Amino acid sequence: MTVGTTTYAALLRGINVGGSRKVPMAELRTIMEGLGYGNVRTHLQSGNAVFTARGDEDALAAELAGAVERHFGFAVDVLVRDHAYLGSVLDDCPFPAAELEARQLHATYFSAPVDAERFVSVDQPAFLPEEFRLGDRVLYLYAPDGLGRSKLAEALAKPRVTKGVVATTRNWNTVTKLVELTRD
């Protein structure tokens, strides 16, 4: 790592899902290297990249989103988070992550802090045994039957809940892997 740089993860929202908004990871790496980012690596095909750079998270996210849109011709929401933040998401998980299957636990990262008021319309007891808890710019979701079958995840994704923030979800395997990959 170059002196003065930070290791970040970029989380691209809604790419390579269902056959649309294709962003090949090799092209994403090339775009990121063209922006001057160092040590660029991607994880899976669902829009996770690790890199080193100077700058703040919001500026880097905007820069990368702009470059992706210019290259591919469609807008992609991007969140950038550093290792310390990603590690705190892992450490602060209110659910017993070690006892659960990775498909049962998810983290939804937000572009800005969200408060509990945003979620008052979600009748949590109606969705049990599924549950969610809020953290620092993150929502933890326990979905015992997985995200694809989660009625709570569907309710949490409604526009009245997500209005004004970018939200992107990762399963617990990816949450853990991004912490590992961003470790200096």
From TrEMBL:
<dbReference type="Pfam" id="PF08002">
    <property type="entry name" value="DUF1697"/>
</dbReference>
<dbReference type="InterPro" id="IPR012545">
    <property type="entry name" value="DUF1697"/>
</dbReference>
<protein>
    <recommendedName>
        <fullName>DUF1697 domain-containing protein</fullName>
    </recommendedName>
</protein>
